[in-house]
Input
Amino acid sequence: MLERRLYRHIDWLLLGAVVMLCAIGVTMIYSTTYDPTAGVAGPQVRTQLGALVLGFIAFAVLLVVDYRWLSDSWVTIFGGLLAMLAYVLLFGVVDGGAQRWIGLGFFNLQPSEFARIVVALGLATVLYHRRWALQTPVGWLMVVGIVGAPALLIYQQPDLGTAVTLLPVAFAILLFAGLRLRYVAILVALAILITPVAWTYGLQDYQRQRITSFLDPELDPEGAGWQQRQARITVGSGGPLGKGFLQGTQSQYKFLPVAHNDFIFSVFAEEQGFLGVVFALGLYLFVILRGLDAARLAKDRLGTYLVVGIMFGFAFQVIYNIAMSAGLAPVKGLTLPLMSAGGTSVIATLAAFGLVLNVRMRRFTN
Amino acid sequence: MRPDLDTDPGLPARDSMTIPLALMRTTVVLAFAGLGVGFWLFQVAQHEKFAELAENNHQRTIALSAPRGAMFDRDGRRLVENRYSLNISLVREQVEDLDATVETLSDVAGVPLAALEAVIERHRRDPPYRPTVLIRDASLAQVAAVAAHGIELPGLFVQQLPTRHYPTNEVGAHLFGYVGEVSDAQLASAAFENVRSGTVVGKSGIEQTYNRLLMGTDGARQVVVDSLGREIETLGEEAPLEGRQLQLTLDYDLQEAAEAAFKVAGFDGAAVVLEPDTGEVLVFASVPAFDPNEFAMGIDGETWGALNSDARLPLNNRALQNRYPPGSIFKIAMAVAALEEGIVDPDHKVVCNGGGFFYGSFRQCLTSHGTLDMREALERSCNTYFYSLGEQMEIDQIHHWATALGLGELSGIDLPFEVQGLVPSTAWKREARGEPWYPGETISVAIGQGQVTVTPLSLAVMMATVANGGTRVTPHLLKAVNEGNGFVPVPRPVPRSEVELSPETMSAVTDGLWYVVNRNGTGRRSRLEGRDVIGKTGTAQVISLQGREAAGDEKRFRDHGWFVFAAPAHAPEIAGVVFGEHNDQSGLSAEIAKHIIETYFAKKDGLLRPVLPLPSTPQLVPPVVPPVVVAANHTH
Output
């Protein structure tokens, strides 16, 4: 299955950049969970390292298996995802008011993290095989089903943030599959029309509060606006050169909630300064552009769809999280892929990159 | 072999992908550029602002209250000190639901909710990180209850604070004054520059006058706190500096004797005793008093209200806040004026037939005294004699000499709220009434009625001035200050004015006042064998004779009884005044003076202190005191 000559086509540059971001992530998790009195970092570091090992195994598997083979078995994979999401809703582990995890004893698996790859795989396959899909109601029905079914299950957990990340994946693939611009226009119009309705009926109180407090943090300095304000203070106080490793007062004195997770980039910005931020932003930009290259080079449209879906979803989440980490976007429970602590997120993201490299590697095969 | 779906002619050509790809790349690059600009704005352009915010976040300056300086009496006895009290305080910033927290606290500590809310309201504008003291001087049970409910009461903590303590309780209360949180009005004044809101400052008495010396310097501790406000480390600490210790001129033995004598006598009033040569205040009492300890922990509204609505006016400092007619005491000033102006000599005689006609109207005397010279006129307090002096004198001559003795003037004592009495003059009448002075009015003034009013303190100054031969000393309470290297005497305040009374005047007045006490005069109840006490009684009428008949024997219409004194006669060591409010008889005031004088000499000679008799009738009903009424033209 894996021929020796394929190795030559592995995108080592992209892989190197990804590894570097993971390393920065582990370092920052160490810093944010460091306990100065005991002199040791929290257990999250070890968990993250374990997840990275699993992640690179998943990466290797998804690199080795031909993506076309995966595409052929997408129905099984998609069914598996829905089954896991349904299982979570029924028997999942509850934490912080949400039911998102499958308890595995040593590890809590969050199936929704895999939804992006599976949706990308499903949409790519369907649109690849049914060329007129976007001109027929049945085709549209399938598209809506592939995106909508997992999104609905994830929204029920509730986890609006992760559900929403499926949209850029779908949007990117549809765009490449020939979605007419007039449809895009209709979609935008629909979105605008739906907004007030969604505001009233679709959002929970805390979600509305997060958005209003984003628009005016001073409205609620103790509650939702607090995190945002603290995020800005954290980033801004870092200055051009940063306060140094383990020296961030905002993170070390716990002014920033879930610093090792959703707000890891704020801490990075505080300790490494603008210089570090530019470096990290550069790495992420490189990873995204280099990943999109695979879409251009892909041997077939299937590969192209798969890559743009995965990469645009990745880009969306990176941009949103970094904007949020500087208080430039409403607070949403979205991790920063590759850097945030979070076992499933690491495994799923690395698996996705396995697929991207998979597509690029096989550009010359038949 | 898979079908090549890519080359199907029905689909857009592969080349068409360049447009969405370019679109996507552009979008991503623009978004990253936006992020870069955003971070640049925060981290480079506005770095200073955010750095300061971050510092405010995790650094706190905690004020360490300085204990106020202790006070001692002239013998080095400790009169005012500090103790440490447990205060339950709240940091608003750390409380999510203020109302719920305060309600819970009210529940577990058993404190009325309204009281706690009032405190919160008062400190509404303080920075949210500064602790607000909710319960001062909490009991151990309250502290334990708060600790037990720690989880429901975030942001509450127990603070140890130095608190003023007055071991003598009510004794000397008007002299020491009391402390309390600085008021907004005080904060606005220059004397309270650099004082933080919430600081405990002097509000009355010595505590107020010497607040700056007593206050000390608060220390500060710079700490690092985490997001829950827990102190993580101390960056630096500046220890608080205790306030200066003050030694007062007060003689606590005499003070206690004076206040005890009032208790036994069963009436209210005031007593001031001075050292005539220096102006040092040995006794300064106003009865009834209050317990300054109740203010030390922040007085509660109920106690404050009770003190203010008490008909006996315990907060009123009778020694210097009230004006009364001096009555016959004023005859001392008349004698001095007449002799020094050369109107008469001491042997000048007048015949008293129970009164006489002056400026066309009959003026009464208490009885028919027959023929008297000036010494006898003082002894018997004969009105007719002093009417006749008044007839021969200008009001401005009287004004001049009364002023030289300190009447109608501020004494300049180092206590707040002193009021000025009045000795009329032609200038005063022109200004105040727009009328010339009528000589007939001088007749009333001559026996201390009419417009003449004095404070008890100013009568003490008069006696000291007469006793020392004409130097109007400034009464003062501060003797020495300890800045940390032992007590250093403070310079004595300069006399307010100085005249030299002639030996004839001195001898005549001294003789007259000696007769008052040691012959059959009105002050014989203060006579002490071998001590040569001199003195003079006086009555301040609160209602005219006619009105009195109508009012019956109601206590609030009874006369005030004065007694001024000095001893020993020819080289006085003490001089003073006793004012008895509505005690009806100046002789009762003389008894209190006697107890003070006796205690003074007993202490000086190392003898047993005199013992007071038990009060004959326990005081059951507190007398009702109306505002001071100045009226009538009768005296004895």
Remarks:
- Residues 6-13, 617-636 of chain B have pLDDT under 50 and may be disordered.
- The radius of gyration of chain B is 36 Å.
- Chain B touches chain A through 47 residues (CB under 8 Å).
- The longest helix of chain B spans residues 18-45.
